[in-house]
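go over this record:
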Amino acid sequence: MKTAHLTSAHPRRDARIFLKECSSLARAGYDAHLVVADGLGNSAENGVTFTDVGKASGRLSRMVGAAYRVFAAGLKLDADVYHLHDPELLPYAVMLKLKGKTVIFDAHEDLPRQILSKHYLPVAVRKTTSVLAEAGQKSICRRLDFVVAATPVIAQSFRAMGVASEAINNFPLPGELEMSAATRSRKKNQVCYIGGITTVRGIRQIISALGLVKSGVRLTLAGNFAERELEKELMQTKEWKHVDATGFVSRDKVRSILEESIAGLVTLLPTRAYLDSLPVKMFEYMAAGLPVIASDFPLWREIVDDADCGVLVDPEDPQAIADAIDTIVNDPEMARRMGENGARAVREKYNWGIEEKKLLAVYSKLVGPPQKDAGPVV
């Protein structure tokens, strides 16, 4: 049974697409393929076969040229089921259905709400684009076989359209980031933020908070800035001297940063796209035994308070972020307890081993069971 995942926008080793979904399918016995557009060539890993159509030269080239090349390469595979990961591929989903294929769309984000959060666009443009995106997505997805959604709220929005959908949450791989007691000796006087860096993810407030902390803590900032102008602006602030910016890092480096950090920051601003999100970095901090300093959103409050694994703050208030950092840094016993609680919650509830079963059940229902029994998630 051949499966083909298609992406024109994500890297081949994307955690959700490759490390979790494709690798789980391959381990379960499906003939798993992943078509990408990164220019790194054809290869295979974890039982997954990569087909590369070449890297696009820019955003427009990616959304038009690379998207078509990914579709064309995927079509040549003649797979039993196609699993598409980018909105720009949705028009090709219709073409695949016309050819009698089983098609799944993977909604990583709530696209209409995400567009509304793009503050670099004029308000009128945002609203119009959001409405058009929602209408187009609804029209196309109603013709597909299933929508896999990254959160329960996104899944519910598709079900409200009459589309079969289930949340396959992007939770950490079991054991990938779990730390031993010995790693506590590696802790430095630092907190970390790992992931894409944008205004709406609260980076201005985080940097401002560094000038207000009393514990002398440093920030390890691991990720790429979405806007070069934002990076230049923040590098000119007096607080930047407290920042160690690494840029994008490998998974091994992520683990090293987590081992050395006292707490992890996930203080996204209260935009419509984030209020009901489940940021994977929050769960990765928890998996690594780090207390989280997180935005006080209702959904996040339920998770953090239930597990007693961190401190909730107003993400728009640098002083509140600074106070939370000082509270954790100055109370090692509380930090240890919260970290252990978060790691336990991931082991028991928020991990890919649980989500993998849901993914395999969707595939089994749509195209039949794999050729062999699934092995354990590693």
The domain at 181-348 is CATH 3.40.50.2000 (Rossmann fold). The longest strand covers residues 31-36.
